């Protein structure tokens, strides 16, 4: 099947009323930071918090009745899994989902809650593939591939129609790449409507699989990444050919840049993005020289981030910005001492995140103790003023948390 703009337009009509027409917003923060017009397509607000429902809908809707009776199977780290489970449940089709053993628990539980049978197999999607092939053969299931399927590419391409309609005179597009389904569909639309538009794909340095294909490189695939949604070792054959023809360049980002993008999206836009969802923003923040002065669009392609991981990223950002620290305070172990410290920190505008009363250290006299407190403040200078106030009140205080 030769995928083209007409096929994607037909799919868009099928999807009308069955998915959310997600908003596209101008990022005031990013636009100012890199001196450009930066727009965010918020597919994290889509059903199942990901763009994947588009391709899943088109694929399941176009199944023959016999295929629907036998059931479908998908392999996915989470977002495709939820999308297939979502539409399978609505279409009364039995769904079996094979997920990597390292898939985030939140994504596993959400997929199960949508009525799918979930099987954890392999460390990555590629390790799961042999097992999936066996189930397809033995149980006569229809595979809904996460990216290397024309219907999936067509479905994801409908997102491109919305972007091009929302952002007039768009000059650059920045799209995350895992297996390549999303960027394939979008690039076909974008290049058809504006042959001069530049399209950049984004991968992590730990999973540069499509980068290797396009640049004929052999960069190492390293393992775990925050962007588990685009952690694909071998990209699709269909998508690789489309990307060769339509995508201008692939940019690589590291894990710290991903963290920074996730926290920036939340702090500045109040947008919750998973690692893959923030990849485009990370690439824009890293490559200001490419995007400065341009009208730029990117897709926040997913918002399914584990709550504990999300909290950890935000706290790490506070630490890196100097707005959080851990102090150790030597005290005499007598009533009211903890309240005295707490009141003093509060008086100077600090917020105690956690506090520990340590009496059992070997180097602490029996009538003494140590207080370990994690303190949040407005800045490095604010933290310094709180520590100074504690010392002036007679406490011995030392910082025990390093800031980068």
Structural summary, described in words:
45% of the residues lie in helices and 19% in strands. The chain has 404 residues and is an alpha/beta fold. The protein has 2 domains: 320 residues, Rossmann fold, CATH 3.40.50; 77 residues, ACT domain (Alpha-Beta Plaits), CATH 3.30.70. The chain has a 6-stranded mixed beta sheet with strand order 1-2-10-7-8-9, with helices on both faces. Strands 5-4-3-6 form a 4-stranded parallel beta sheet, with helices on both faces. Strand 7, helix 9 and strand 8 form a beta-alpha-beta unit. Helix 3 crosses helix 8, helix 8 packs across helix 9 and helix 12 crosses helix 15. The longest helix is centred in the middle third of the chain and has 17 residues. The protein starts with a helix and ends in a 5-residue tail after the last strand. The relative contact order is 0.12. The mean pLDDT is 91.
């Amino acid at each position: 099947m030769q995928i083209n703009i007409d096929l994607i337009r037909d799919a868009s009509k099928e999807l009308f009323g069955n998915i959310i027409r997600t908003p596209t917003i101008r990022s005031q923060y990013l636009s100012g930071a890199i001196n450009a017009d930066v727009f965010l397509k918020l597919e994290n607000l889509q059903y199942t918090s990901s763009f994947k429902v588009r391709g899943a809908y088109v694929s399941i809707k176009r199944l023959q009745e016999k295929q629907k009776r036998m059931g479908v199977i998908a392999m996915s780290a989470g977002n495709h899994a939820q999308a297939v489970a979502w539409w399978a449940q609505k279409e009364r089709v039995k769904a079996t989902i094979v997920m990597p053993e390292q898939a985030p628990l939140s994504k596993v539980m959400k997929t199960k809650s949508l009525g799918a049978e979930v099987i954890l197999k392999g460390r990555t999607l590629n390790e799961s593939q042999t097992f999936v092939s066996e189930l397809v053969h033995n149980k006569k299931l229809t595979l809904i591939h996460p990216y290397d399927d024309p219907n999936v590419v067509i479905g994801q391409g409908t997102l491109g129609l919305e972007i091009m309609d929302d952002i007039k005179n768009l000059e650059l597009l920045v799209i995350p790449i895992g297996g390549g389904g999303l960027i394939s569909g979008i690039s076909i639309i974008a290049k058809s409507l504006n042959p001069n538009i530049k399209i950049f794909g984004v991968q992590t340095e730990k999973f540069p699989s499509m980068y290797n294909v396009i640049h004929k490189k052999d960069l190492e695939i390293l393992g775990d990444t925050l962007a588990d949604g685009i952690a694909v070792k071998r990209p699709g054959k269909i998508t690789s050919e489309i990307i060769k023809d339509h995508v201008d360049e692939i940019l690589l980002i590291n894990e710290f840049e991903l963290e920074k993008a996730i926290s920036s999206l939340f702090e500045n836009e109040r947008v919750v993005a998973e690692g893959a969802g923030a990849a485009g923003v990370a690439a824009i923040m890293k490559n200001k020289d490419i995007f400065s002065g341009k009208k730029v669009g990117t897709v926040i392609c997913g918002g399914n981030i584990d709550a504990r991981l999300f909290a950890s990223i935000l706290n790490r950002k506070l630490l890196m910005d100097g707005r959080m620290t851990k102090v150790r305070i030597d005290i005499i172990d007598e009533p009211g001492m903890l309240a005295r410290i707490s009141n003093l920190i509060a008086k100077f505008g600090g917020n105690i995140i956690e506090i520990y009363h340590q009496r059992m250290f070997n180097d602490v006299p029996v009538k003494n103790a140590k207080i370990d407190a994690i303190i949040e403040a407005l800045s490095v200078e604010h933290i310094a003023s709180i520590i100074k106030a504690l010392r002036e009140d007679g406490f011995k205080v030392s910082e025990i948390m390093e800031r980068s």
